[in-house]
Amino acid sequence: MDTGATPEVEHDTPDCAGRWRRDGGAWRCTRCAAAYPLTPSVARATIRENAFGLLLARLTADGRAAIDGGSGD
Ligand SMILES: [Zn+2]
To answer: Which H or E element spans position 64?
Structure first.
């Protein structure tokens, strides 16, 4: 396992809501022009970013009830 030094992928704009997608020989954002090479560390970062984006989308879509009812963890 890696000990740190995981490069974070960044969007061109900090509030970009795009998702990372494999396109040709690179990971590209679906909304801004950010692109990164297909490396394992970038793949891991994009997967994490995508998962976080999906989580936010779910919380926004149907999370109000969960938030009101408390997050049963
Ligand atoms: Zn973007």
So the answer is: helix 40-69
